Amino acid sequence: MSSPPPIHGGNVAQEAQRLGCKPNDLLDASASIVPFAIPKDLKSCLKQALHRSPLRDYPDRNYEELRKAIASWHGINPNFVLPGNGAAELFTWAARDAAREGLSGLPSPGFADYKRALRCWHGTYQNEELPLSWPEEFPQPFPITPNTEVLWITNPHNPTGQLWSKQSIIPLVEKYKLVICDEAFLPLAPVGEKQSLIPFTEMCPNLIVIRSLTKLFGIAGLRLGYVVSNEKRLHHWRESRDPWPVNGLAMTAGEMLMKDTAGLQKWLKKVHNWVLQEGSWCQRKFKQIPGITPHPSSTNFFLIESQHSLVSLREELAQRHILLRDCRSFNKLGGNWLRVSLQNRKGNKKIHKAIRGLLT
Ligand SMILES: Cc1ncc(COP(=O)(O)O)c(C=O)c1O
Hints:
Layout: H1 12-19, E1 27-29, H2 40-49, H3 53-56, H4 64-74, E2 81-84, H5 86-101, E3 104-108, H6 113-120, E4 125-129, E5 150-154, H7 166-175, E6 178-182, E7 207-212, H8 214-217, E8 225-229, H9 231-240, H10 248-259, H11 261-287, E9 293-294, E10 301-305, H12 311-319, E11 322-326, E12 337-341, H13 345-359
Parallel strand pairs: 1-11, 3-4, 3-5, 5-6, 6-7
Antiparallel strand pairs: 2-8, 7-8, 9-10, 10-12, 11-12
Helix pairs in contact: 2-10, 4-10, 5-6, 11-13
The protein binds pyridoxal-5'-phosphate.
Pyridoxal-5'-phosphate (PLP) is lined by residues 86-88, 111, 154, 158, 182, 184, 212, 214, 220, 225.
């Protein structure tokens, strides 16, 4: 019996087992993580942490230093910041608030984890369709106004890669009882940060902004994210969470990364240059492959579309140890779409060459 299509990319261990190879043999372009080795300072910080308190002792339950470092980077009050075990853990708590407020509007196709989080609290939701073609210029106006109490926004949007303008989102914050904005990929988008809603969290108690550090630094296995929202709301979340949701190694890594502002600026520049260079290389090269259309993106992944099913192409690529994101689990996309996550030039060339070879 064939298994249902996956609802998440990055199933490297499972795919390696299925394909009879080692996880390291796979080029994983199904999860959108930077392709660089982690920053050198992070590596030495983690090595040192193994011999000291961060591994042996319980982490600071208030995550004081980490909250201060994140707040200082964004120029906000540390009481408005709460670190989490990746953005995914924080969606669970945001969903609890959403379920209490009423019906959630989920832009669709969209990231599946919000539904998982809402189901934890018996929260109700409806899919709100996004147009399936969009221009090349970013940012773009957020195109829908669902008739719901709660609105979930992903900026940039997953899986389309569209960057929404803050001018179009801010008026929406007044309309809804609660707006949850997932900015997991915003720091990776070269012109993303200007569209952040973080500066508005102090004025808007009904706004929750969630960030991830896992994609930006290539630490998805370590797990680290944070939420920026009203102090009172975060106090309630803390009352219900596990006592130590962020482990000592992730906490120490986060402190180091966010305190070193010069290092962070440098890293962001490197990531943005990569997205600009490889994003435009891929758009140019993939446009030349007959039978597929690459869609424009502001960030480190993009969709390709065909008139025909791409399901067997995806499988043939997997047999060649290249993983792309199957889009059948995304509402309205289906088998004619695949999502490609940017790699380094060598990886992008490998993906391009394999697809071209299979389609021509
Ligand atoms: C839009 C979006 N937000 C959040 C996440 C999860 O981030 P984290 O690894 O910090 O839990 C993902 C992971 O794929 C994502 O695509």
